[in-house]
Amino acid sequence: MRKSILLLLIIAGLQQTHACDLCGCNSGNYFIGPIPQFNRNFVGLQYSFQHYNTLLNNDNTQFSKDFFQTTNLMLGSKFLTNWQLFLFVPYNINHSLSDEGPRSINGLGDITFLADYNLLDIKALNKDTETVFQQLMVGGGIKFPTGKFRVDSAEIVSTANVQSGTGSYDFLMNAIYSFQIRSWGFNLNTNYKINRSAEHFKFGNLFTVNTILFRNFHIGTVTLSPNVGLLYESVSANMNYSQKVKDTGGYDLFSVLGFELRYKNISVGANVQIPLKSDLSKGQTTAETRGMCHLSYMF
Hints:
The chain is an all-beta fold. 1% of the residues lie in helices and 63% in strands. The chain has one helix at residues 156-159; strands spanning 3-4, 34-35, 42-56, 59-79, 83-98, 101-108, 112-125, 131-143, 170-181, 184-194, 201-202, 206-215, 217-219, 222-235, 239-240, 243-244, 250-263, 266-280, 285-287, 290-298.
């Protein structure tokens, strides 16, 4: 069964007098979409994008339009009986257009390693040949500061958002529950990301939870699985020299529409995340529609 681990971050910066320093996202925080079957080895590529617009409430001449793209090399391997290991190697392409002009930074992002343990794995067949499947995975990981984080200490609040990385070792925790009966299935995923500081600056910690309902359709040797769900995320305020950065943090809610298609050992998929409700940077940052696609080979 395919799983979804959705880890995404909404980050903002500090308002200053000469430029708009609020931003919807930073390049060191990422989105991980559907992952191929657990208990299988896989290699794959994934592309995702996020788009944010910011306009200061007290000065509409200060603005920021930010577009973040990530291409992930994904590797997964079964380890022992109940462990599954994952490695994500991102390449980031970040564009920002603000009242100060355009800014672009491309490069290797922060590599992430995850390990999940299988606490529950039940598959039953009743008298009516009705297959019931349940699985619960828990785990965590670490994000390494492999991406560039080169900022001027005097402008760190405004420039940290568009760097290739965050400059810090960050930690992740996650739990994934899946239930499937016949062709219908349900996934519930929760994730918490603990960010640490770099150059006296710390991005806010992130909590996400998402639910996905899917249906499998078998067409010969092809399995098509359309899915629909909700994604909620909440991020705490950024910190600079142990002080909260003004007007940062918030929450948002997205609807998720997508599909997964599997043919033998090949898996492809995509989804779109449509904003339903948000309160980012006290209403000054707006999250636009986001998306993801991937191609994976299982072995």
